Structures are given as structure tokens and as C-alpha cells.
Amino acid sequence: MPPTTDQGTVLSLVRRNAAEYGDVPAIVDGERLLTWAEYERQAAAIAVVLLDLGVVAGEVVGLQMANRAEHVLTDIGAMLAGATPTSYYNTLAPDQLAYVAADSACTVCIVDAEFLPAWLAIRDRLPALRTIVVVGPGPAPTGVLSFEVLTAAALGSLPDRIDEVRRTAAQVGPDDAATIVYTSGTTGPPKGTIVTHAGIRTVLDGVLARVAEDLDGLPEPGRRQVSYLPLAHLAERTITHYLGCALISTVTYVRDLRALADELPKIRPHVFLAVPRVWEKLLGAVTERAVSEPVRWRRNLIERAIAVARQVGAGRFGVAKVGWRTRLQHALFERLIYWRIRVAMGLDDLVVAVSGAAPIAPDVLVFFRGLGVTIVEAYGMTETSAVLTLNSLRAPRLGTVGPALAGVELRLADDGELLARGRIISPGYLNRPEATADTFVDGWLRTGDLGRFDAQGNLSIIGRKKELIINAAGKNISAANVEQAVSSASELVGSVYVHGDNRPYLVALITLDPDWQRWCAARGIAVGSPAEAAADAAVRAEIDRAVRAGNEHLSRVEQVKRWTLLDTLWDSGTGELTPTLKLKRAVVRDKYAHSLETLYDATADQVR
């Protein structure tokens, strides 16, 4: 397809890349490599498939796949056909999947073979669904079509059908829906957020402008990125899939998140998005190396290097003074240790490192900056097309998420709630007029977050309006800040829920990290289940240490006075977490009401 005038859509970027950078690698998926020219050709063939399946403009094409080439190619193929691609989380239970598929009225769904049984089980509950297409080798079951068979035939007919695809794609405009993203559902059923091409392009233009300003230009085409977080999450979709198109990147797709640590050193990304827990895990790998080092002098050396990195990181953020001895040690450790750590992690070629989707502990940012990796925080939400603010890559301000992107207006309401407007903002929720009217008021999005600005316009998020704890003394406390302080204090700590409305002090429910077995094994703790681990004295001592360490960063009124370590893990399947691992606070409060009440029992032990 030849280049055309930029219509302000995601499709315009793909078209440009194929025409001007056709030989640049676009996708790496295992042994498979596609250039941008091949990317566009494959996507156009998928558009032909969808058109032949009767998909018309505005209809939803459902996607449930791992992070793989077919996922993003079908996403673009659906757009080329005039449809709205919508990715569903791979962790959804059948009832949850039935809800979002029915709410979005998807007419065609394209799914990995492992998810096919769930779709067959709910098919009768989806009146709009006409066709199921399965991705994977081998023949498709009766009543299901094969993605490979359909796309092979479409590729053969593409020379005769390309004008048809061009005509359909030309009808897609900036104000059309590029996707529908279902929010996490922390306070009720998930809401389908309509995200437009204009919203996405505004984000991309703002991010590129910030990067170009801070780096004195944009990275060259072919820079490496990695996609491993769920593509149903708009942050991942925006920073790897859409931004990959804008940067003309080469994106490697990692199908299994558990393989990320092994894959990063092979990929060595230039641009890397991670949620705070991933950054914490990477930091934990360094500290674990010190703990497990059997040779005492080497262990002492690593521990000193970590301490110096923290000191220099704090100095680079301007929150501490660094003496000449520390600077000299840092230079020595850079030659001996730090560069080796970056290489071992696969972070040695990083140009842009981003943390998003949740608050990150300042200690993590400080350590990595001392290590030579500057992580910048981005802030946004699904309703803002993923990103509203981005910290400076050249001089990030600790404790802030940076200033607004170009084209974004921010202000605070009288009660401190952050309001936002601009083309970046979603037009509303699918099938939810009341929720839309409550959230989008007079052109402003009510974010639900409480914020403040410094003199330079940098935004700090100080809590969720609906998640504030008001204790018995009438003090307002951000539950999220307290939970983060505890969870970031040890890699053994998983999800934390803090409680204290109308109570004299805060209490917490604590779970083990999903990777608790590795932590225990490194210390010779022989336990076979989360319940056994939760009962182990050494494990409990570490949790107690984490609570105390977290409390050191909190004011007296914010500190956790009592806690209990649960003998089960939380995830989206057990109901306490959303697919993006956010707490469903009401679910936890109701499910563990007895445990919470016990923590306020005057006769109870201090720690349980």
C-alpha cells in the first residue's frame, strides 16, 4: 500500500513504516521475523479475512491471544477492515469472559487454541458472535475456522483485493474507536472504555516530543522493544504496540511472562516499560545475589556496591549530597560491578525506561539511577488513552510523575481531585451512559486521583479519592501509599490490604509473593505450600521486618500497627485482584471481615 497523507490514525503510522522503512524488522516472535513491509501485508490479508466473514465498520473483533505476532497483526487487520479490535485478558474466568464479550458485542473472535474451550463453552451466551477463529497448528474443530488456513488463502488473493482494503481503511478517521479496553473492575463489573485514534495519536505525539526534547532527537528506526505484559492492558498496548509503530521499532513478543528474565538479556531493549513489581523483582535479583554469595568478601563487596548505588542515585535526584569518597567508589564499582549487572539483566542498551500502571517506591528509582538506569514514571489511565504525564528523561523529579504531555490540560478540583481534558480523553464508556455522565463532566475527566503540582508543573499523585481511609481521629490516609511502603520493603511480600476506616490505627492483610518458593529456597527454608511458608518462623520474621521497614517511611498515623500473614495467595482467579493485579477492596473487605475484626481484638497478639 503506497504512502498517503497522515489521517491521524494508527493505520497512518503502519502505512508510513511499510512505505519508508519496509526493510526494517518490525516483529520478532520466536524464530519468526517480519519487516514493516511484511507486517502491513500480513495485516491487510487479515483484513480480507474479516471482510469475507462479513465484518462491517464499527463491529467489534474480539482477540484473546498471548503476546505474539498474530495478536498485533490482527489488531491492525481489524482496523484496516473498519472494525474495532478489542483484546480480552487471558486470565478471565468463563463468566467474566462471557460478560465482556457480550458487552462489547463481538461478532468475530480470534483466539489461541488454549482459550478455545472457554469460547465454545460460552458461545450460546453471545448472541452477536457469528464466527470463532482459532490460531494454532492442526485442523480446527467443527464449527470453528482455522486462522492459518484463512490467512493463507487471503494472502494469495491479496493482489486482487488490496484496493478493497484501501477503500475500507480510508474510511477510518481520528475520532473513530481504535479499540475498546475493559477497565479492571475494582469497584464493580468492568467498563468498556472507548479509545479513539485521536487519543492514541495525541499520546504518541506527546511522548515523542518529550523524548526528542530530552534526548536531543528520537531513537533511530529499528530500536528494540519488548512486549510481555497483557495486550488487553492499554499501557502495554500503547507503549509497545502503538509506540512501536510511531518509533519504527523492532518489537520482540514474549508469550510467557515467566520467561522475561531469561529473554531480556537476549533482547537488550532500548525502550522498556515495566510495572513497579517487575522493577522490584529486578532489584530483588541484585540483592538476592548478595545474600546468596558464599564468599564473604565478595558478598561484602556487592553489599557495598548496592549501598553506594543508592547514595549516588539519591544524589542524582538532588535529594542527598554525595561526597568525593562515595563518587570515587561509584566510579570503581561502575568498572567492576554495575555494568555487569546491567548486562546480566539485559538493561545495558536502555535509552528509555518507564514505570507505569501503579506507584513505584522511591527507593527503587533511586537504586536504579545509581546503577546507571534512569527510570521515569508515567501516569495515566485507560480513560486518558494510557498516558497523561511523563517525567523528564534528562532530569526526572523524584516523587512526581512529571508534567502533562502536550495537548493535555490538567487542574485540581476544590477537593483536590485531578481533572483532565483534551483529545487524549475517551469519549466515554460503552453501554454505560450513567457512568459516562458521572466521569466525564463538562469536557473534563474526573480521574478519581488526588494530586498536587510543584512550581515547575510536575504532578504528584497523593492517593485515590475513593480509597482514602479516614481514621477515628478524622485523619485522611492514602491506603495505596501505605500498602506500597510495605510491599516494596521485601520481595517476599505480595499483595497488601490496609484497613482502618473509623478505627484508631491501621491493620493489614499480607500475602506472600507468587515467587515465594525461590526466596525460601535461597535461604534453605524447606516448605512445600504457601500455608507452610506462612507458618515458618523465618518467613514471618521477614514479613515483620518488611512492615517495620515500611513504617519507617510513613508518618505515625499511617503506620501499620497489626498485621496477619494469610496462608493463601491472591490473584484474579481467587477474586481479590483484577487481571492487572489491582486490589478489589470491597471483595477483600467482605471476604476477610473476620480476620480484620480479629486484628482489632484487644486480647489478640500484636502480630498474627
Structural notes for this entry:
This protein is an alpha/beta fold and 608 residues long. Helix 1 (10-20) packs across helix 2 (36-52) and helix 2 crosses helix 6 (147-170). Residues 603-608 have low confidence and may be disordered. The radius of gyration is 25 Å and the shape is globular. The longest helix is centred in the first third of the chain and has 24 residues, at 147-170. The chain folds into 3 domains: 10-173 and 219-253, Rossmann fold; 262-465, ANL, N-terminal domain (Rossmann fold, 3-Layer(aba) Sandwich); 471-599, ANL, C-terminal domain (GMP Synthetase, Chain A, domain 3, 2-Layer Sandwich), CATH 3.30.300. It starts with 9 loop residues before the first helix and ends in a 9-residue tail after the last helix.
